[in-house]
């Protein structure tokens, strides 16, 4: 299924289901938001990377207009709906200030494999423990999906963009597992190094070897 929708390119990855608060200040995007509110329609956030506009993004619905300022700027609450592939991009949609484009919506498959979530949980406990942010574990939904934790893994925006392109939950989980297995030893070694640096200069209580 293809459709022409308003577009709001940003240097972020918005995932399906994610709640996103946005401050709108440019005239073209003020127009976009006002039209979406009036028509109860959606818009898309294609990911803008260093090398330019990416081909993938997320359809967004506006949940509420939280505040409107005297100069027309707005605070809005939004939520991601589904992933799309950008087929055609126009810097200005016909008769509008804002961009638009033809998009194809992509079907995602929830096919998590046995043990993937448990393995991720185990690695997350170790990672957050090493970083001293164990409180993040309390915020995890019981049956979390990859999208629920994607912004809490230390991914670069390029890595998040790669995750967005994975259409199967099992592939997204595996991508996360590979990332955690790669960074956990680095984080743990860094924390050990920090402890050694802190101890330098302190009186040391050491047992000599027993020859």
UniProtKB/TrEMBL annotation:
Domain of life assignment: Bacteria
Coiled-coil ranges (or none): none
Domain named Lon N-terminal: residues: 2-184
InterPro entries, A to Z: Lon_prtase_N, Lon_prtase_N_sf, PUA-like_sf
The protein, known as: Peptidase
């Amino acid at each position: 299924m293809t459709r022409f929708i308003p577009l709001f390119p940003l240097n972020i990855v918005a995932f399906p289901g994610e709640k996103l608060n946005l401050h709108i200040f440019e005239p073209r995007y003020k127009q976009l938001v006002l039209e979406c509110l009036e028509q109860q329609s959606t818009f898309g956030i294609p990911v803008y990377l260093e090398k330019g506009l990416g081909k993938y993004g997320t359809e967004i619905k506006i949940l509420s207009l939280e505040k409107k300022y005297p100069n027309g700027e707005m605070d809005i609450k939004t939520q991601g709906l589904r992933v799309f592939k950008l087929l055609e991009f126009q810097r200005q949609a016909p008769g509008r200030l804002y961009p638009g484009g033809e998009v194809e919506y992509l079907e995602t498959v929830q096919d998590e494999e046995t043990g993937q979530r448990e393995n991720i949980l185990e690695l997350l406990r170790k990672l957050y423990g090493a970083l001293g942010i164990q409180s993040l574990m309390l915020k995890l939904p019981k049956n979390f999906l990859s999208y629920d934790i994607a912004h809490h893994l230390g991914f670069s925006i390029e890595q998040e963009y790669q995750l967005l392109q994975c259409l199967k939950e099992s592939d997204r989980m595996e991508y996360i597992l590979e990332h955690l297995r790669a960074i956990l030893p680095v984080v743990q070694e860094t924390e050990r190094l920090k402890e050694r640096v802190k101890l330098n200069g302190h009186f040391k209580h050491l047992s000599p070897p027993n020859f």
